[in-house]
Amino acid sequence: MSAVPAGEGSVMPPGRRRRRVLLANVSLANGGLERQLLLLARNLPPAWEARLWTLEGGAYEAEVREAGIVWRCRPRRRRFDPSPALDLTRAIRSWGPDVVHAWHWMPAAAAVPACRALRVPLIDGSIRMGSVPRSCGRPRRSIMRWATLVVANSRAGLNAWQVGSDRGRVIYNAFDAKRLLGAAPAVPWQVAGRLTAVMAARMDDPQKDYPAVLEAARQLERDTPGSWRLLLVGNGAERTPLAVSARQLVEAGAVTFHDAGREAIPAIRSAQAGVLMTDPAVRAEGCSNAIMEYMACGLPVVCADTGGSAELVRDGREGYVIPAHDASALAACLSHLAAHPGLRARMGASGRARIDTEFSVGRMVADYVRVYDEAIIRGGRTVR
User: Fold this and answer.
1) Most buried one in 189, 254, 342, 384, CB count within 10 A?
2) Alpha-carbon distance 296 to 209, whole Å?
């Protein structure tokens, strides 16, 4: 058995068994959810041990192995293959975790029978967005009813799913400050006298409102030509169509596309403002990792008022929260920030301080440990 590296917390008392949490997810892909899962697994206090169970591997496999975390992966052989669910049941039965924490509704559903039979508390942590998706809403509600506690990464998420305070808990995502070490800007701070605003988001997700951002870029270039650059960081199936639609802006230097790979921090640090526009008709944001990255880098943020974004950005303090799809409001806020460098600095400093205190890894880990202890007690077990 591999031990989890010691995180924050007290030294393990002699003779006491470490408490066990099984973290179950679909994959270890390169995503914000997987980043948060790994942060938790690597930083649990010495009194806890984590193991991972997933249906698929992914970009974070190497980091899981380097951290010495025990990991089981049981891929599906076909779409309706029951063997992964049976394997998860065997994992729960053989290891005997004190609590199972499912990060996606599929492993949550697979874990319900074993958790019920073995009286193992189940945490449903599948609420990662600020709205209910169009598909799978009804079965997911049924799964949540079997969970001991339901955890969301935003208040908006709990409200959207109508999970009450009796069982619902909010644990915000965390930003790992180690990511800032040695992350020098990838491109110059000033490009031909232009100020840079960055939007870091996938380009294969219709939730991300790139059309509104490009329209704001057109307005800025029309009203104050040569003064702004929109740096669009990401990749995906829609990147080529977006680049085609923005061809004139790219040629004018008003828009730059940049594929940052797995780490967007160097590109974000090249900017003076962060942008996140989201289409709530597709999905509302939960606790946005991109917004936390902007704030950690000291950037004022302009974001659409969807889901949990306003729980991160307090309007007028860390930036501006504007109506969804409102390209004119986005352009106006960026113009105002360009004209007031002192305001940019104050908002950026407020965001950085808020990340350091309210969205730290230590805070997130402590919150999860409290929820695990609560779930164990609710399940009729003793917190050892």
Assistant:
1) 254
2) 23
Neighbours of 81 (CB within 10 A): 13
Three-state SS at 52: strand
Q: Beta-carbon neighbour count of residue 271 at 10 Å?
A: 24
Q: Do 154 and 130 contact (CB within 8 A), yes or no?
A: yes
Percent of the chain with pLDDT over 90: 84
User: What does the block give as tokens for 262?
Assistant: 């797995």
**Cα end-to-end distance, the chain, whole Å:** 20
The pair of structure tokens assigned to 244 is 């085609």
CA atoms within 13 A on the CB side of 62: 2
242: left (phi over 0), alpha (psi -120 to 50) or beta: alpha
Q: What is the pLDDT of residues 214-232, one digit of tens each?
A: 999 999 999 999 999 999 9
* Nearest CA among 192, 185, 271 for reference residue 232: 271
C-alpha 364/C-alpha 139 separation (Å) is 28
CB 117 within 8 A of CB 39: no
CA distances from 12 to 1, 22, 46, 191, 371 (A): 17, 19, 6, 53, 19
Distance of CA 67 to the CA centre of its chain: 21
Residues 152-176 as b/e (b if ≥16 CB within 10 A, e otherwise) read bbbbbbbbbbebeeebbbbbbbbbb
Looking at residue 6, the DSSP 8-state letter turns out to be P
Nearest to residue 332, comparing CAs of 251, 253, 215?
A: 215
